[in-house]
Design brief:
This is DUF7580 domain-containing protein. The chain is an alpha+beta fold. Among the domains are: 122 residues, no CATH class; 216 residues, no CATH class. The chain has 16 helices and eleven strands. It has a nine-stranded antiparallel beta sheet. Strand 7 and strand 8 form a beta hairpin. The longest helix has 30 residues.
Amino acid sequence: MLRSITDSDFDMKGMMGDLQSDRWNNPELVLRLQQRLCGDGEFESYDASLHSIHTNLDKMAKKLKSCESPDESPDSMSQGGFYLQKKFRKLQFSVRKKRWQEQVMDLGRQIDRVGKLLGEAEALALARQPRSSTISQVFEQAKCQASSLHKAIIKGWTCSCKDHAFKLVLDHSKIGGHLESGSHAFKVSFPLRSRIWGRAETLLHQKDEWHTSDTAIISNSDKTGTILAKAEETERSRSISAVSGSSLVPPSSISHASSSSLTSSLSTAATIAMTMSSSLRSRKVSFQESEQFQRESPSGVTVNEDPLLISDLCHAIQTRGKETCLGFLEDGEGSYHILHTSRSLSFTSTELDRVISLGAILEQKARGKLICQELSRRDRLSIALTLSHALLKLYPTPWLPRRRGKTDVYFFQRKDGEIITENPFLLCKTVPTKDHFWPKGPVRKENLHDHADALLSLGILIMELWFGEVIESRTFWKKYCDNEGNEKGLTSLMAAIEWQKQAKDEGGVGLHDITHRCILGNFGMTTMNLDDEKCVGAVYDGVVKPLEGLLAYFWPV
């Protein structure tokens, strides 16, 4: 819930890291919370529950304080009497222990009710929005932001030292949190060593290291007039002076929001959220945060007074200091992307063994060679949901230009063989600046057939993830190949149709409906165009939401 009412993930993490921050007293956030809890009596119930929780906590605090030992030893009659009174109250507290336990349990039930109220409001956030254009706007914004970010990264790599590969970390966060903010927090990892992962199984060197950044976009608007002017001035000065590294730009408009805050009731809600989520942390596979970063930035987010316009991304990453804000990139079309060191993802080679593709994971059964632990069906469904979100957010963009498949999605594998399924990623490669001038072939434009092929690939991937095996391992696959066993133009489509019919009995009606729509394009439209508002809404309703339902059915496993 806090994610949906704050301006960015950076604000949210800063507030969660410092519950005494002034940001919790910001009346604007209270208004946003009222808008989220817009149901009949929802906000009133929330406010009354928190008031009751505060009252009970205050009473308990006073009772406990009355049982504290006196500051000084009893050296007089009055002090001795006070000391005996304290001892008597402590004895009373111990005798009434059972009653106190009941009050604590009742307090826990009140906290659970508040958590349930917030969870239900978050789940209903999308349904409470105007249905006609909300979904398409969210995904369209994501595509524009992703394309702009890719351009900015390519433009920022002005070095001529080596090829670079960078990763876009995928997630399937609910789109309700992006409805009001209108932006997405993409995570991008930049390798600090020259390394390209081109094979399915690539071992990691013990010194491999990555810099992971959370990105936020600032568009060309009145609010960013200052930053644009400064950026243009920097570009002009760059052509005059040969300065290596990053150029200093003091854009006041992109400095982090000044200390803003929420009311004490929201502070309690954050504490409740942290308490409720703590029991789930052990279930999730997460990357360790840098202890040094936590010590130096206790508030969670710090932005330099003068963020840097990054003119050489390679140099900026290699020479990064202790700042949590690396700087910002510009895409050449009026949009800027701020790069913050990610606190939630920290890749360390000490715990990782290799990078492995989804194709290699699924093919191990057919090859009879185990290279990793088999994934549970719930893990595989979670990956399918993530890839479904990625298709709507990233296709067609430079991150997902054409029909990508299982060999284009990668995971990290721990040394004990466990696959980190929470953070699949796509790999992109950029060539040195000196190679930008080599003649390039004609750029192939996307057409509507590509959109249908992308949905076909998604349908095949969903079936492969459901059954834990690749379509090429099925006996009927070779029937649709040429005489030499090579795939033909319609091989994937014909094999997918046959497998989809067989999968109905094994996977049930839910899986059948999802895959049938993807493979045959059965969304009630003449042509499939993932840039079209109605098409995006149909795919979301017919694929993403049913997958969320299937995933919920398998929780926990």
